[in-house]
Design a protein that fits this description.
Number of helices: 9
Structural class: alpha+beta
Shape: globular
Order of helices and strands: EHEHHHEHEHEEEEEHHEEHEEEEE
Distance between the termini: 27 Å
CATH topology of the largest domain: Antithrombin, Chain I, domain 2
CATH class of the largest domain: Alpha Beta
Helix content: 25-40%
Low-confidence stretches: 1-11, 24-33, 388-402
Number of strands: 16
Largest sheet: 9 strands, mixed
Number of domains: 2
CATH superfamily of the largest domain: Antithrombin, subunit I, domain 2
Radius of gyration: 22 Å
CATH architecture of the largest domain: 2-Layer Sandwich
Length: 437
């Protein structure tokens, strides 16, 4: 929704809040740019150490994030083609907005995002979750990387509340960078600076998240979250050859199908097969969900937190012969309409949004802040060595027995999940591995 600027004495001015969420997977390269230095909020608050109580709140936070992850999947599944997104990135970015939400806006966001914890408990729990995710280390240096970064870009002179800025600095490590969105030349400079920050945090993969025209003279704040992930398989695939992959419409395309025999956590039900593929460090893994032939839409329609939890609980070690396609693709999503449909319309409505926890309305009479866009980009690449990883070595041990067979030669769903906290970092759907868009 577009902001409204009126010069009438008694007419409201509706400033726009742009919520940017960048999520990138396995990204080579790096960008350098002149990026404004973050300004410490009053009191010089920096990222704080989470209180002991945050550990007790972590399961509730993760459970809510998982419920949102699959609720969003249901909202997105009608999108055509391959799909990939980071529900954790989206939840974290919107949590920063939620910190400033009040009244009905806060209630709608709470229900839509499944934030069951009170505000004073939710944000310390996010802080702890970030810390635990980024503390993951692999057994071999360089074979596993996971990093989460947040930033704020605010209009010079806008009356942001000190406690709001201190809270985001303390719980999300998001310092405020002052920019000027009002003047066209300065606005373009700000857009480029934000894009350069994104490019750097995603190691060069996402180079222009914010397209020209998204920022306007009414923009007052941009919140950004970036997540970077790179990992090698514990057991790399050792054989690849072109094989047919059957699309949903029955047509076939030739794709590189990787092969490996392994002992892996595996489950099979009436309408699916599932396998867990660990990355080095054996804390984060990919879960591949393969619906039975002709059952993809029915399986996808029932995908939920409860369904996935039941599948994860049923996994058992089996001797598996796995065929998995190599694939690489990206998703560019505009999430505002989806989030409105999921139950938080007021945050996007210039006349109803209550984000007064972010700023002092008495210092800016008649001003109102609302979300104008939620932009999400994500990229995934899977090959023999890992998820877009450098070469790795591994020893494949085979036993003399007939293995279970899992041939992923038709559309499938996959998750990348931190097993220690249960956090789902990424969710994807591969309908056509040959499509790299």
């Amino acid at each position: 929704m577009e902001g409204i600027l009126s010069m009438g004495m008694h007419q409201p001015i509706h400033w726009r809040l742009l919520c940017v969420i960048v999520s990138a997977l396995l990204l080579p390269g790096c960008a350098s740019a002149a990026i404004p230095t973050a300004v410490a909020p009053a009191g010089g608050a920096t990222r704080s150490t989470p209180p002991p109580s945050a550990q007790q709140d972590l399961p509730e936070l993760v459970g809510g994030n998982e419920a949102f992850a699959f609720g969003l999947y249901q909202a997105l599944r009608e999108e055509p083609g391959n799909l990939f997104y980071s529900p954790y990135s989206i939840s974290a970015a919107l949590a920063m907005v939620y910190a400033g939400a009040r009244g009905e806006t806060e209630r709608q966001m709470q229900e839509t995002l499944h934030f069951s914890l009170a505000q004073d408990r939710l944000h310390p729990a996010f802080n702890l979750l970030d810390a635990q995710l980024m503390a993951v280390e692999a057994n071999e240096a360089g074979s596993f990387q996971l990093n989460v970064a947040n930033s704020l870009w605010g209009q010079e002179g806008f009356p942001f509340r000190d406690d709001f800025l201190a809270g985001l600095a303390g719980h999300y490590g998001a310092g405020l960078r002052l920019v000027n969105f009002i003047e066209p030349d300065d606005r373009e400079t700000a857009r480029q600076a934000i894009n350069h920050w994104v490019e750097g945090e995603t190691q060069g993969k996402i180079q222009e998240l914010i397209k020209q025209g998204i920022l306007t003279e009414l923009t007052r704040l941009v919140l950004a979250n970036a997540i970077y992930f790179k990992a090698d398989w514990v057991q790399p695939f050792h054989s690849t050859r072109d094989e047919p992959f059957t699309r949903l419409d029955g047509s076939q395309v030739s794709v590189p199908l990787m092969t490996s025999r392994m002992d892996a956590l595996y489950a099979a039900g009436e309408n699916f097969q599932a396998i867990e593929l660990p990355y080095k460090g054996e804390r984060v893994s990919m879960i591949v969900l393969l619906p039975a032939e002709g059952q993809f839409e029915a399986f996808e329609e029932t995908l939920s937190l409860e369904a996935v939890d039941a599948i994860l609980q049923s996994l058992q070690i089996r001797d598996i012969k796995l065929y998995l396609p190599k694939f690489s693709f990206s998703s560019n999503l505009m999430l505002a309409e989806k989030l409105i449909a999921m139950g938080m319309p007021d945050a996007f409505d210039p006349t109803k949004a209550d984000l007064t926890g972010m700023y002092d309305p008495t210092s800016s009479p008649g001003a109102g802040l609302h979300i104008s866009h939620v932009v999400h980009q994500a990229f995934v690449a899977v090959d023999e060595e890992g998820t877009e990883a450098a070469a790795a070595t591994g020893i494949i041990e085979e036993i003399i027995s007939m293995p279970e067979m899992m041939r992923v030669d038709r559309p499938f769903i996959f998750l990348i999940r931190d097993s220690q906290t249960g956090t789902i970092l990424f969710v994807g759907r591969c309908l056509d591995p040959s499509n790299t868009e």
